[in-house]
Structure formats: structure tokens, C-alpha cells
Amino acid sequence: MHEAGHLQDESGSGSEDEMPQSPMEAPQNDAATSLSSHIDRVGLAPADSSPPEGDFASNLRASHEADKRKGKAVSRQIALWDTLLDARIQLQKAMIAANRFPLSDKTARYSSHPMACEALENLQHVAVSLTEELFILQGDLLRINEAIEVPPRKRQRLNAAPDPDPVDLYRAIMQELSASASALETAYHPWLVDTLSKWSAKVQAVAPNVLLPENRGSFMRNGKPSQMGVVILIDNVLRSDGARLLDRTRKRKDKHTRMGHGSPALIDEEAAGEEQVDVDVFDDTDYYQQLLRDVIAGRGNSDGHAGEAQWSIQQRERKAKRKKTVDTKASKGRKLRYEVHAKLQNFMVPVPIVGGEWHEEQIDGLFSSLLQT
């Protein structure tokens, strides 16, 4: 009785008619209270329990700010990509000029000239300085990623030795720079492969047909899209067609020739139609034309007209250089040579009226009456 009175005092609402709670009902109430608190804790509240209006507005504002930052980041990435494309397009002229340099057996004829020596020395300084700046930029970008360990390298300078032979010094520096570039590529190649595989899987999950080219089915297997990633596809192409692709970069696709090898007009017509493999030539005109088409399609304004015209001229030159099929048995009048003219539309030859009902005097009288003559 004393405990019951104590419970009534604590509740503040007890009455004499209320019966004390049975021992069987107490565990059920405790379980219901525990379940309710668990639902509130994990966020499984009823549908009518909406968040406060202030929290909804703040979440919407935060989502809007996040989308704005993403949009600005994408805009900066597109601007950076356009800048890199412009730089690559500008370098195409330098690559074409480099393919015109004479070979080693005819270099002395040009390098002995004083103006050529001065120009060569200036070119060496600019090329080495640009290469060093690119190495520094690439190293700084790679050091941001903790998964890549950038190998140490020594900065190269042309004036390292007193009065050296400029050609021999430049050759040695280029060998060291090539070794440094190979070491740097070896360092970040595993991360590059992992990144390509990750994003290839994400893209294929959204668009399975993205790896299919538009004009040929090289990535198709039995008429169906290939489920392999882009890394495996690239490895397969390089393994099967690597030699052919390498030969394509060693074929001169422009109308220029090397210095000291005669004028293009003196080259035999049949030899000019066939693209000869030259191990001292690097010509990626196909890749350059694809970049040019991407720039034209991406910008879609008047700035792309000049590039489009240049690409069209190059396409016509390539078609003109292709070897024409010549029938060797058609000489000496053994076959009649002729050209088929295109059909004339809406054309009818004059048909004279012979034996008609009207004679010439009647026709003249008709036109005289019409013309009042």
C-alpha cells in the first residue's frame, strides 16, 4: 500500500478507481517504447513526420551550391581541354616541318652554314627549356596523387660543359630526357590503367554501346556489343594490329618531301601514289584530323570554318595522291576510251513538225497577227 501510494504521488494523476498494472502488461509496454525509439533513431518514422521547413530549405540550398560548383568545374575542364586541343593543332605545323629535315648523310650540307648553326642552337635551347617546363608541370600534377611516386630526375642544361659540340650535347641531352620520360611513364602507368578500367566500367554500365564505332564493327563480337573494357580492347588492337598501326605513322601523308631529296614534281607519278614506309617519319595526320573534327563539332561557330577548310583541302590532297587503277592493256588503240556524261534533266531536243496541217505561210500569218505587224 505504501508503494502504491508513492507511485500515485509521482504520477500526479492517479485515482482510487485505477487498477495497478499487471506484471504481463509491463514488458509489452517496455518493448513498444524500445521499438519506437529504434524507429526514430534509424529514420523510419511515419510519413506524416516531415522535417522542419528550415532544414528542407537549407538542404535545397546546399544541393544548389553543390550543383553550381560541379557546373563550374566542368566548365573549367572543358576550357582546359579546348586549350590543349588548340596547342596540339598548332604543333602540327612543327611536326610537318620536322619531317622535312634531311637525313644524317645530308645534314652536314645544311648545318655548316652560319645561319643554320645559329638557328639550330636557338632551337635546341628553346626545345630543352620547353621540355623541362613540361616535365616540371607533369611532375607537380602527379605528386598530387599519393598513389604515384614520381622518380627523381636531374634538370638538363645546354651550357653544362664549356664550348661543347652543340649537336653531340643536344643528342646526349635528348637521350637523357627520353630516359626520364620513360621512367615517368612507367611510374604512373599502373594508376592510368586502373583509372581507365574504373571509368570504362562506369560508362558501360550507363551506355553499353559507347565503345562501338560509328562506321565499322571492329569492337563487335558476332554482331553484339563487346562487354570487355576499354583497356582490354586497346590491348587486343595493339596486339593484333600494332605493326600496321605503327607503319601508318611512318607514311608521309602530305605533299612535302625531305630537304635534299629533289622536288615533288620530279617524283614518279606511280611512286607518289603509293605511301612508302619511312622509319624516320612520324605522321599522325589521321589523329590530327579526328581532333580537328572534334573541335569543329564542339564549337560549331565561325571560328571552325578555317579548320574545316584546311581539313577539306587535306582530304582532297589525299584522294588525289591515291594511285589510280590503270588498265595496261588499253594502250595502242586496243580499247576505246570514253567518258560517260551525266544525264541531263528536263532537256528535250527540238522535234521538227513534218507533214503537219499548217504550212509556213499560215504560221507566218498567225505570228504577224499576234505581233501586229
UniProtKB/TrEMBL annotation:
Query: What superkingdom heads the lineage?
Result: Eukaryota
One GO cellular component term noted in the UniProt record for this chain: nucleolus
Q: Which Pfam families match?
A: AATF-Che1, TRAUB
Q: Where is the Apoptosis-antagonizing transcription factor C-terminal domain?
A: 288-371
Q: Which GO terms describe its biological process?
A: maturation of SSU-rRNA from tricistronic rRNA transcript (SSU-rRNA, 5.8S rRNA, LSU-rRNA)
> What are the start and end residues of every segment in region (Disordered)?
1-72, 302-325
Give start and end of each AATF leucine zipper-containing domain.
67-202
Listed InterPro entries:
AATF (IPR025160), AATF/Bfr2 (IPR039223), AATF_C (IPR012617)
Q: Give the protein family.
A: Belongs to the AATF family.
Name used for this protein in its record:
Protein BFR2
Task: Please tell me the species this chain comes from.
Answer: Ganoderma sinense ZZ0214-1
Question: What does the record give as the organism's lineage?
Answer: Eukaryota, Fungi, Dikarya, Basidiomycota, Agaricomycotina
